[in-house]
Write a structure and sequence with these properties.
Layout (H helix, E strand, L loop, with lengths): L1 H11 L6 H17 L2 H18 L18 H11 L2 H25 L16 H13 L10 H50 L8 H18 L2 H22 L5 H10 L2 H13 L7 H11 L12 H15 L1
Helix pairs in contact: 1-2, 4-7, 5-6, 5-7, 8-10, 8-13, 9-10
Length: about 325
């Protein structure tokens, strides 16, 4: 309701010049924007559970606060998303299961009326809605639906019970489990792909480890060819130290050149610091580059990021152009 009110006010009514007239609208808009964030909504719901348990004396509401553990890591969050994400498919499957349950219940009424416990209850015999829910309850809970008194009843109901087991337990429920498991598998693959990309690609320029290493090696070889032997030894020792530090810190996943590129040339924290600096600085004191970046941020344009570019890649390109000119 808060969200719909906020959307309506934002789209249909301009803000009033009087602060008192805007206070309620701004408050509703702020609450709506806050609840739209998952962590704020989760904290609010958990706080409501804790408040009900404390003020209303309903102690078992404290147990619901343990659900916060499910959001503590990516794997457990994917478990919840595997149920929430295919909600539409699960809803249609549940509706189909209810239809099948009702069909089996009506069939049991005409075939095994005397042994069907639901129809022995007089209060449910004339109420269709109650009949439906009692049928669903009795079929979903093993045991009480149909009782077998002798060998004749066993053979009479053998095909019915086997068909019920195959259709409901084997087919329908496995459809539900399959939807959940497939969704969880897709979410797990998506998480692994994202982590692998963050591990082997620069966050700023999106260049891979292989590209950075290859370009760095070419620049190093050129320096060794045209530079002095002492400078070459210094660069070689520096690369070895970077390799050993990177291997010990990242499990050998990337070499020194790529690690140095991510930490020095394209440090994501340096870019973040610059963006916060530009956003918090007075616009009248902007320099030329700061004004350029500020204007692009206002237009949601991230073109100032060096996508597919870096110092070492530019150096290799200059080397190629110089070689062509020669």
């Amino acid at each position: 309701m808060i969200y719909l009110s906020s959307r309506h006010w934002h789209s249909s009514q301009p803000l009033s010049p009087h602060l008192s007239d805007n206070f309620f609208r701004v408050a509703v808009s702020a609450i709506s924007n806050a609840l739209a964030k998952e962590n704020v909504l989760r904290a609010s719901v958990l706080f409501a559970f804790a408040a009900i348990g404390y003020f209303c004396g309903i102690k078992y509401y404290y147990c619901f606060c343990l659900l916060d553990v499910a959001f503590s890591n990516e794997i457990m969050r994917n478990l919840l998303k595997a149920i929430v994400k295919p909600a539409k498919q699960l809803a249609y499957t549940l509706f189909l299961i209810l239809i099948v349950l009702y069909t089996f219940g009506v069939s049991a009424y005409f075939l095994f009326e005397k042994s069907y416990l639901s129809f022995n209850l007089e209060s449910f015999s004339s109420d269709v809605v109650s009949f439906f829910f009692v049928t669903v309850y009795n079929i979903m809970v093993p045991g009480p639906t149909l009782s077998i008194g002798d060998e004749g009843e066993f053979w009479d109901r053998f095909g019915f019970d086997i068909l019920f087991y195959v259709v409901l337990d084997v087919i329908m429920l496995n459809i539900v489990f399959g939807i959940i498991i497939d969704t969880f598998g897709a979410l797990r693959d998506e998480t692994n792909t994202r982590n692998d990309h963050l591990k082997h690609y620069c966050f700023i320029c999106n260049l891979s480890t292989k590209e950075i290493e290859h370009a760095s090696q070419r620049v190093t070889n050129r320096g060794e060819k045209f530079g002095s032997g002492e400078d070459a030894r210094d660069r070689s020792l520096k690369d070895q130290n970077n390799n050993s530090d990177s291997d010990s810190g990242a499990g050998g996943s990337s070499s020194g050149a790529f690690a140095e590129h991510c930490e020095t040339d394209h440090s994501q924290w340096a870019y973040m610091h610059f963006l916060f600096f530009v956003l918090s600085k007075d616009s009248t004191t902007f320099t030329g580059p700061e004004q350029y970046v500020s204007d692009m941020l206002k237009n949601d344009d991230l073109g100032f990021f060096p996508i597919e570019r870096s110092l070492v890649i530019d150096e290799v390109r200059k080397m190629g152009e110089a070689k062509k000119e020669e």
